[in-house]
Protein: DOPA 4,5-dioxygenase
Amino acid sequence: MTFSTNIHQFYHAHIYFDGESNEFAAQLRDQVKQEFALPVGRFHQQLVGPHTMWSFSISFGKDDFEQLIPWLDHARGQLSVLIHAVTGDDLLDHTDYAYWLGVPVKLNLSALDVR
Structure:
């Protein structure tokens, strides 16, 4: 599989889950924490920001991209993952600078802090 070009300095990966995939997502979150020395966000069993499903996030940089993304694509099972740049422009980050592993999840873009 080919991944989008790694052109930004910082990224977020948002891993989406629901009640049925909750346990698998929790195990995946633990695996990420064991495999990578990266900040892993809270395990949100509620809607947060523009995310219309439960989620947790991983913050990573340009140097982590090539190792994390293929690993995450393999380990995610059937979970959808939003990968987006962190540039300071939330709307662009979640649209033009974003792509998906798995099935895209509709985002609530009106929840973003548009400057």
Notes: The first helix runs from residue 22 to 35. The domain at 17-104 is CATH 3.30.70.1240 (Alpha-Beta Plaits). The mean pLDDT is 92.
